[in-house]
Amino acid sequence: MRDRIKRLMAFRRVLLPLGYTAGLAMSLWAAYLLRFDFSIPPEYREQFFVSIGWVVPLQLVLLLAFGQVSGHLTVFSTPDFARLLSALAFALVGFLSVRAPNDVSYVPPRSIALANFILALVTLGGLRLSMRLAWQRLRATPEEWSRCSRRVGIIGAGDAGCRIAGELLMKPHIGLKPVAFFDDNRHCWMSRIHGIPVLGAPELLTGERPGAVGPLGVLRRIFGQKAPASPALMLDEVIIALPSAPARRKKEIVRILQQAGLKFLTVPSLDQLATGAVHVNQLRPVEIQDLLGRDPVCIETDNIRATLEGKVVMVTGAGGSIGSELCKQIAAFNPSRLLMVEQCEAHLFQIEQELLSRHAGHFILPCIADVLDAERMNHLFERHRPQIVFHAAAHKHVPMMESQPGEAVKNNVFGTARVARLAVKYHAERFVLISTDKAINPTNVMGATKRLAEMFVQALHAATPGTTKLMGVRFGNVLGSSGSVIPTFAKQIAEGGPIKVTHPEITRYFMTIPEAVSLVLQSGAQGSGGEIFVLDMGKPVRIMDLAAEMIRLSGLTPGEDIEIDIVGLRPGEKLYEELCANGENTAPTHHPKIMRFVSPLPNLEELARVFGDLWDCLGTLSPNEIKLRLQKIVPEYRPYLVQASPPFFTEPLANKSAA
Questions:
Q1: Which element (helix H / strand E) includes 329?
Q2: CA 535 from chain center: how many Å?
Q3: What are phi and psi of 73, to 5 degrees?
Q4: pLDDT tens sequence across 501-555
């Protein structure tokens, strides 16, 4: 039987028009029955058979015009109901506009027209809804229906929670049965959503404070005044449906659920719900990013759109964490062409495929290139003439660059200088350098090279006024980026520990990759040239607390199941990151999350001379000597010097011209 009905569902293009025709005919007949108290006079019976020949076709034509006849048989949502209502309303208007005062042979009375409208709406809506329910029931296997459903509580009675509950009720084969809502909003208490009671605040799950009077009061009388809500409700799992809640509140709720011993899932955060929809298949475990996140950032999209739309945009380092997110967000502003420059073929392929899946293939152009390759980069600029350049290509791993400072200097300094000069040469409108907070009073090679790149960009802008607007943007650690602390800790937890922390008091600033990139685009759009922008990174996070929280989110206990080992600071590592360097003054911008640093501008000719000297001897200097050379150019740099250098670091470089 189940297979037969499934085969019938395959003929939806025929079944839906036939079902509509039968439903409309029955609705019109029912309207006549109601009008004449189930005793239709003979002349009106004749009228029915005449009027059905034009009333039903009129309704079908309008349903077809509103896209309801060709709709999917098993899908019926609020937009579908709205279109169904509109089609029948237009049919009613047509019905009432027909006048034949002296002839009742084909024009039914107005009362029948109104009754027919209501009955047709109920009949067709019920038909579509029953088909949807039948299909959802049938597509589940008997094994799926036979298994026991897990009782689920939903924290958050807003839009996300309502959608999740509705979808779980419509898809019982998933095995999750929503039985209760919890919400901080007292006005929701004692109400019902989809027939599910809103019992009170999430704290009820541990009995920390009394909840709303009503269903929970009854439960507490049965199970005891001090009994927590979760045993009374026999919850197996909890869904946190609070995509816009502050991180602090999410952290409190996680603590409550951990105390109650309940498993929990969450919906994606706001920056992940680009479509505005929440679905059951998007539920995922709570991650540390959810608890470190900040309030959503308000971005002036009109300003960014005016800067990017219809322009040729280049992103260097397009396969990296920041570069790939830049490409995704820039693609949403419809550039005429997006040049994705990356030297790693595998990373470039990944971002290309993701943008192709977003239907951006008509304007993206993946370009395999090394920013130090003068001939290749010159060809790209000459051929495509990018108007906006985001320079994200860089070596960023601090310990690795400490042992190989020459590579950091080449890529971070000379690579930046080459791309910036090409941007000026080919009259790009804007050049935005992606920098780091490690450039502030640097103690490592990566930060020192980034600071030197900032100095060059500022000097070049001052020496070439009125052409390209060159600027830099600093920000701290981004959550989940390649080589960052969170994926490293996650791997160590998966391996059974221990988690290795360099110092018990070390702190870092964190922000999400989408948030950082959004503010980079905002900075690039509002900059007038020569500025170094810094993003508001919020409050610093203690890494020891971060490690302990990640262990708890894994369902384990810090110090018992997973140890935390203190291994000591790595070369060039700070205990805490700074917000501004000596001699820098901060100035506000019109965006509250972006500050502008004002510092003395270096001389371009002097920098070019220093760069030339450094390039000429870069292949013959030891790591310590390179660091000391950098300190002469960046006086605030405090290098970490080693006693001896491996011999392979002193091999001469290939003969290349300086940037």
A1: helix 321-331
A2: 19
A3: -65, -30
A4: 888 888 887 777 888 888 899 888 888 888 888 877 677 788 888 888 888 877 7
pTM reported for the whole predicted model: 0.65
Q: How many Å apart are CA 3 and CA 268, to the nearest integer?
A: 36
Type of residue found at 530: G
Give the whole-angstrom CA distance, residue 567 versus residue 544: 12
d(CA 80, CA 476): 46
CB atoms within 10 A of CB 213: 11
Q: Kindly tell me the number of DSSP H helices and DSSP E strands found in the chain.
A: 24, 21
Helices 2-9 and 110-138, packing angle to 10 deg:
120
Looking only at the bridges linking them, the beta strands covering 585-588 and 594-598 are antiparallel
Q: Confirm if 417 and 612 have CB atoms less than 8 A apart.
A: no
Can you tell me the distance from the alpha carbon of 430 to that of 386, in angstroms, rounded to the nearest whole number? 9
What are the Cα distances from residue 147, in Å, to 153, 166, 562? Answer: 19, 20, 35
Which residues contact residue 357 at a Cβ distance below 8 angstroms, ignoring those fewer than 6 apart? none
For domain 147-286, which architecture applies?
3-Layer(aba) Sandwich (3.40)
Opening angle at CA 329, ends 326 and 332, nearest 5: 145
CB 602 within 8 Å of CB 635: no
**CATH level 2 (architecture), domain 301-478+510-537+578-605:** 3-Layer(aba) Sandwich (3.40)
Q: Where in the chain is the domain with CATH 3.40.50.720?
A: 147-286, 301-478+510-537+578-605
Query: Please, are residues 468 and 430 in contact by the beta-carbon 8 Å criterion?
Result: yes
Of residues 582, 585, 471, 476, the one with CA closest to residue 532? 471
CA angle 394, 342, 418 (to 5 degrees): 55
